[in-house]
């Protein structure tokens, strides 16, 4: 089963159903529709949920629109969004980076 890590502040949002979408850059897991996933708290290393990918599409980070935030946490600005992903993935992230927009359902 493929594993995805989530920042600790996002765990409750996943569990309460308000976060049903995750964005992933530089997909090293070859995520695809129908994959079953194990969700891991990035800070504790503990498994907190299982899910299945029910929809997936790709988009360039600079082309993200308000519609793409459905089921995803919001950012105060585009600059904050870029900064957040630089924190996760490092300086390789820029506005031309491809994002996998992954909709999931908990199992």
TrEMBL record:
Protein name in the entry: ASCH domain-containing protein
What InterPro entries does its record include? ASCH_domain, PUA-like_sf
Q: Where is the signal peptide?
A: none
Q: Which domain of life is it from?
A: Bacteria
Q: Which Gene3D superfamilies match?
A: Hypothetical protein
Q: Which SUPFAM superfamilies match?
A: PUA domain-like
Please list the residue ranges annotated as the ASCH domain. 4-107
């Amino acid at each position: 089963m493929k594993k995805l890590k989530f920042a600790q502040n996002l765990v409750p949002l996943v569990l309460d159903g308000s976060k049903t979408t995750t964005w992933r850059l530089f997909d090293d897991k070859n995520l695809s529709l129908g994959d079953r996933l194990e969700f891991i708290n990035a800070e504790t290393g503990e498994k907190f949920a299982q899910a299945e990918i029910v929809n997936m599409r790709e988009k360039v980070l600079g082309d993200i629109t308000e519609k793409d935030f459905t089921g995803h946490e919001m950012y105060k600005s585009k600059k904050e969004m870029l900064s957040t992903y630089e924190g996760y993935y490092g300086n390789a992230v820029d506005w031309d980076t491809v994002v996998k927009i992954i909709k999931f359902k908990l199992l």
